[in-house]
């Protein structure tokens, strides 16, 4: 029999589900099954579960026809479980590495009905806070099992389903199911402890409990938080049916009042207008369920709260809460006080510009003005350029203005209206534009005005980790202000994604309440619609003869290794290509500032880092060689050969972090040494059957939305307000 059945319900967690599943399947213990339950999720959760089930026989995917909620979704997984123990893990949490062997050893040696495991709360900013286990148990618990009556303090551990493994026969014999509604863990977690004959505690952090920045029920203002009362009523109904457990009623009652006060005290849950009613419900339950012999009332401030609840004194309770909040605000203000930093002449100039910007904010928004920017004002490029072109055609009433650096003005197409970054004109259009479109973020000082629409187009499908996920890889995120990043993300109204995988990763890297526009990448429209004549013209401009075989080499930037270049000898590669071979070399734009880092090339090798439109290079190339660059996703739209050359794959993965292994899920042939790269071209493996099969699978996964109409879909939705 399988030892552990993991039940993983999934609803709107597409950005986190892969990490959850990988944490289970990557453990050094294989006697598990994973039952993933798609709870009618409107995102890609179901597809992710199907994908994992197709490649690992330990995974079973269950699709529910409609959203039923976390409790019933867990029941659906429980009904299909075959393991000796069941572990309910939420789809946005993940297991600590290498913890399962220790869990399995404890289960097989002590055979508990319930095994409690430790956890840490992992916040969106990567802070980790410990659980209450060390506070609950003065001495770390040993392997001996016990009944709850022997260690009643156990009820003070967090009452969740995911921090305990339950013996399946014990659970089914108890007839216990998850109830519908919010706070469903309450009516499950306490009864299993109350009824268990053998409880074990493993003093080992096993679960990373994700504290999401957005989307979590615990941070949702909603009157459904009143459902907590129904769940606690079920717990006391369970106790009423078992008079032999009456001695545990006082500790359970104290936990109930603690939980009610926790929910009431959380400003993200109960709206101010509903707090008096919530307090009255607490008082009613206090009087209804209070044990006849009393219960252990907490000391200090918490005890005072209990007494106010017992007396039904809401006004006094509210005044106490208000005074406490005022004290906390005063302490916070003291902590935030900082020495005044001397301002330089540049800071003074910036301050004047920002004052001008703030003055412009008081003027009306221009209902026809759209402002575009790309790559930190490097010019007219990427997705914003494609959207601007489509807007000129489909929404001619929209006036488009680009923000550019002064040294990049000469790269703009003739007739392009622009303002120079860092000038009063720039501040004015930022303050007054109806639409702000960028493939990176606008500066921190930009304020999101009512009536303004911010469109984040992004500039690639993420291979390397991005956004908040970079906190785990500090070498690639030196100097990053993650709090500032999130303030910028909160301005987004729309996030454009090129494929479902990108949507999932952006959800995880940039958690906020923007609209996901799953339309494909506008910049790739040109790749879809390009004619043979256009390709010939592009090649001619680049000096490529019709019979040349053109290889484009486009490696990505290594933030953790400034100045690093992969080992690459262009002339050895040309020798492998033969006399018809031509090589175009393009550096990442981070290496293309003021012409630094250019290769001295000529003849059959050309540095094309200064070519403004990378799409020209894609159209001209017969083969792309790259590593972890998003170029592979764009180039795959053309359905031409791609080679992954990743000589530092292990170091890159460890230092920079990746969302998937490009050598294992490659769009074509793979080389990890330069000799292997040359051999691929000599042997013809670059265009062989295996490479074509890999490219076909890659295109199906990542290029399905690129049909030539992405920019039009953006314009119709964002500028014209069309839906459908």
From TrEMBL:
InterPro entries: Glycerophosphate_synth, Glyco_trans_2-like, Nucleotide-diphossugar_trans, TagF_C, TagF_N, Teichoic_Acid_Biosynth. GO terms for cellular component: plasma membrane. The keyword tRNA processing does not apply. Keywords: Cell membrane, Membrane, Teichoic acid biosynthesis, Transferase. Residues 5-149 form the Glycosyltransferase 2-like domain. The keyword Aminoacyl-tRNA synthetase does not apply. Its main location: membrane. Pfam families: Glycos_transf_2, Glyphos_transf. It is a peripheral membrane protein. GO terms for biological process: teichoic acid biosynthetic process. GO terms for molecular function: CDP-glycerol glycerophosphotransferase activity. It is found in: Cell membrane. Belongs to the CDP-glycerol glycerophosphotransferase family. This is CDP-glycerol:poly(Glycerophosphate) glycerophosphotransferase. It comes from Micromonospora rifamycinica.
């Amino acid at each position: 029999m399988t030892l552990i059945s993991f039940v993983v319900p999934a609803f709107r967690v597409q950005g986190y589900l892969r990490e959850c599943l990988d944490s289970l399947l990557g453990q050094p213990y294989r006697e598990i099954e994973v039952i993933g339950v798609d709870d009618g999720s409107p995102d890609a959760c179901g597809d992710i579960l199907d994908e994992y089930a197709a490649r690992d026989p330990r995974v079973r995917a269950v699709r529910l026809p409609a959203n039923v909620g976390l409790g019933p979704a867990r029941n659906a997984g429980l009904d299909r479980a075959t393991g000796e123990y069941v572990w309910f893990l939420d789809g946005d949490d993940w297991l600590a590495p290498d913890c399962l062997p220790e869990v399995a050893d404890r289960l097989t040696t002590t055979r508990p009905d319930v095994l409690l495991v430790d956890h840490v709360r992992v916040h969106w900013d990567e802070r980790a806070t410990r659980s209450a286990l060390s506070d609950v148990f003065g001495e770390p618990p040993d392997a001996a099992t016990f009944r709850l009556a022997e260690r009643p303090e156990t009820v003070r551990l967090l009452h969740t389903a995911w921090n305990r493994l339950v013996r399946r026969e014990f659970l089914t014999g108890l007839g216990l199911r998850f109830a519908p509604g919010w706070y469903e863990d309450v009516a499950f977690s306490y009864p299993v402890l109350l009824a268990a004959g053998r409880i074990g505690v493993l003093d080992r952090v096993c679960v990373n409990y994700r504290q999401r920045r957005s989307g979590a029920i615990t941070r949702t203002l909603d009157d459904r938080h009143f459902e907590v009362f129904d769940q606690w009523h079920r717990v006391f109904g369970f106790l009423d049916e078992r008079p032999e457990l009456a001695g545990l009623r006082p500790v359970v009652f104290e936990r109930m009042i603690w939980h009610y006060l926790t929910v009431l005290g959380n400003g993200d849950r109960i709206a101010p207008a509903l707090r008096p009613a919530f307090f009255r419900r607490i008082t009613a339950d206090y009087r209804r369920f209070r044990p006849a012999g009393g219960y252990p009332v907490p000391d200090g401030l918490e005890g005072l709260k209990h007494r106010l609840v017992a007396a039904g004194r809401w006004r006094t309770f509210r005044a106490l809460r208000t005074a406490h909040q005022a004290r906390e605000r005063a302490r916070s203000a003291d902590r935030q006080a900082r020495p005044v930093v001397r301002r330089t002449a540049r800071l003074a100039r910036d301050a004047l510009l920002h004052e001008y910007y703030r003055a412009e904010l008081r003027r009306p928004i221009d209902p026809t003005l759209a402002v575009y920017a790309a790559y930190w004002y490097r010019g007219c490029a990427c997705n914003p350029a494609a959207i601007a072109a489509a807007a000129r055609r489909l929404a001619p009433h929209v006036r488009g203005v680009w923000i550019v650096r002064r040294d990049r003005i000469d790269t703009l197409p003739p007739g392009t209206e622009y303002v120079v970054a860092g000038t009063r004109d720039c501040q004015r259009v930022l303050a007054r534009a109806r639409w702000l479109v960028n493939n990176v973020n606008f500066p921190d000082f930009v304020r999101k005005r009512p009536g303004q629409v911010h469109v984040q187009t992004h500039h690639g499908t993420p291979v390397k980790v991005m956004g908040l996920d970079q906190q785990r890889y500090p070498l690639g995120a030196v100097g990053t202000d993650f709090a500032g990043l999130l303030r910028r993300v909160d301005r987004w109204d729309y996030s454009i994604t090129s494929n479902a995988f990108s949507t999932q990763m952006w959800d995880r890297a940039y958690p906020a309440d923007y609209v996901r526009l799953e339309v494909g990448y506008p910049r790739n429209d040109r790749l879809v619609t390009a004619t043979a004549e256009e390709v010939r013209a592009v090649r001619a401009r680049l000096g490529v003869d019709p019979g040349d075989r053109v290889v484009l080499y486009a490696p990505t930037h290594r933030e953790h290794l400034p100045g690093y270049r992969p080992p690459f000898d262009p002339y050895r590669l040309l020798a492998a290509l033969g006399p018809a071979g031509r090589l175009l070399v393009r550096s990442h734009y981070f290496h293309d500032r003021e012409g630094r880092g250019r290769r001295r090339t000529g003849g059959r090798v050309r540095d094309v880092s200064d070519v403004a439109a990378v799409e020209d290079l894609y159209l001209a190339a017969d083969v792309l060689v790259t590593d972890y660059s998003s170029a592979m996703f764009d180039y795959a739209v053309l359905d031409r050969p791609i080679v992954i050359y990743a000589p530092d794959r292990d170091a890159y993965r460890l230092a920079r972090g990746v969302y998937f292994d490009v050598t294992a899920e490659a769009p074509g042939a793979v080389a990890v040494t330069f000799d292997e790269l040359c051999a691929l071209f000599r042997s013809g493996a670059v265009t062989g059957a295996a490479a074509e099969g890999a490219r076909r699978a890659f295109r199906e996964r990542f290029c399905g939305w690129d049909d030539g109409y992405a920019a039009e879909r953006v314009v119709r939705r964002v500028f014209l307000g069309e839906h459908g």
